[in-house]
Amino acid sequence: MDNMDKYFALLKEGGADLTLTIKTDTIQTAAWTIYRCKYGCNTYGKSHCCPPNCPTWNETQEMINCFQYGILFRCHEMSIVTPLAVKVARELFLDDYYKVIAFGSGPCKKCQKCNPNNCNFPDKTVPAMEACGIDVFGTVRNNGIEIHTLREKGQVQNHFGLLLVE
Ligand code: SF4
């Protein structure tokens, strides 16, 4: 893969504390992820970036199969991940990485009331990794990064974004 230092620097400037190049065969997708959205999240069906409006886990896997490499990054605040993924993907695209696609973290919060059928800002947001059926914990652990569920409020949170690029 080409040298990605420029994009690592942009991610760090935007609030990421960890950035790494990963091989796409370390990205785990799984059928069970939709169940967590459908029965565990109040934005299911209400957002353009949430299931069932975003790619299914097997559609995502087909897209992942189009790439050999990705950039995984970590932030400690959920709200900054998606805009940062979009921003850096745009920079990669303008640098001729025309295939780049981005995944953020958490439900899109850009509009007060999301339009689930027709996004108001399609060039400003992307769905989360988990919304598209990526097992984020499994993927992160496959790349040697520690991540655990949290029980206490106030514990440091870890949120991940992903860029597929080559
Ligand atoms: S930009 Fe607005 S319309 Fe589009 S997914 Fe986000 S909240 Fe929904």
TrEMBL record:
<protein>
    <recommendedName>
        <fullName>DUF2284 domain-containing protein</fullName>
    </recommendedName>
</protein>
<dbReference type="InterPro" id="IPR019271">
    <property type="entry name" value="DUF2284_metal-binding"/>
</dbReference>
<dbReference type="Pfam" id="PF10050">
    <property type="entry name" value="DUF2284"/>
</dbReference>
